């Protein structure tokens, strides 16, 4: 077993937070800036944190068996929370991420085949091709050039989701989505009135968020995409878009409305690229701080691939590469918080949770809970070796959520992250620029607040 010298472990980036207990005013300011900065250091150790914001009760559940209860065993009693819906719905509409009940079940049934193992394996060539395209643009730069790794990962994953789900005729949408998603996250922040569940019309009146127009350009592009498919339905590829357009309700025989299709398309674009890009960005950051782990990754890539592009069949052999990504999503879970609301009152860990309360499950806290993770704030990919992972409770690690609402794109995301990391790390090392500030910022997802300015170094293999 490797003994780790504590003096050598680098201090990793965490959110900046005012000391001590936050006043209501401070809390409201901090939650808009960075949701994760609201938690004091003690929060990582707790099983459940009961809070009250004026008349609203909030419970943070931070214990694996209780999380299993909420997300799986008693999932029928929990809907997605009103606050989460208010954040996402103005942009995403009612897609798979935000819908409930029968509508959600129908949408999930229609979309599931696009994410089954056969489909995911079939997307692998698109994934490596896009990663190689990125390498080609880097190869054209002078040695030692500076890039923003977060922006580069975002661009790559956006192209991949666009081609995999909507075929290449959607390429024109890529830039439009990229701009829209970034503006949306920065514009839409939780307001006190949202947190208190003040009716939406009143909230809009008192404190409007300026989301109007953010997706106009995108909607126009999607309209064009749909119109083109409508004109030539038989020439269209058999992709997710074709499936959405062809879907018929088994009971009524009706199809999805144009608005429903638009909402699914924007949901897949949004949910399907940013999170994976962030998982990769944090991975580059962590590798830049841990040269021994990086060297071990390089050794595996040499042994398994020997310089050639990775394929789907290689993935089972890229064991350490997978551990690196898993450990990266432990420390920096792209989906840092899941929010639910019980329909009827429930009891969790001896606390009575009233119907309608806010229930938060926060991978950011859970994945760093000291009683579940030794040296919880260190980057140690070996903790994901199968024999060590098997000794942990299943619900201690939930980067993709769990239960019926588990991420539909989990296998797609892992395939993509592995293939991109393996392709790029064979050819380049990325060094964090000295002095570049790194701060995890919890908005809708967990992003590096100031991007990731890194210097490219070509590897001589
Ligand atoms: C590393 C990358 C990703 C992470 C960490 C991630 C995380 C998550 C999490 C935690 C949830 C559950 C949310 C909840 O329970 O409230 C979720 C749901 C979802 N994800 Fe992902 N995701 C990733 C990639 C993707 C990709 C690549 C796609 C699509 C191509 C996708 C599409 C979705 C959709 C549509 C849902 C809603 C599922 C439902 O409610 O039925 N995600 N994701």
Task: Please state the second-level CATH architecture.
Answer: Orthogonal Bundle
Strand order of the largest sheet: 1-2-8-5-3
Q: How much helix, percentage-wise, in residues?
A: 40-55%
CATH hierarchy class name: Mainly Alpha
Identify every distinct bound molecule in the structure, by name, code or SMILES.
protoporphyrin IX containing FE
Number of helices: 17
Taking the sheet with the most strands, its summary is: 5 strands, mixed
CATH topology name, in short, is Cytochrome p450
What does this protein structure show overall?
The protein contains 17 helices and 12 strands. With 461 residues, it is an alpha+beta fold. The chain has a single domain, classed as Cytochrome P450 (Cytochrome p450). The protein has a 5-stranded mixed β-sheet. Helix 6 packs across helix 7, helix 6 packs antiparallel against helix 12 and helix 7 packs antiparallel against helix 10. The chain is globular, with a radius of gyration of 22 Å. The two termini are 29 Å apart. The N terminus is likely disordered.
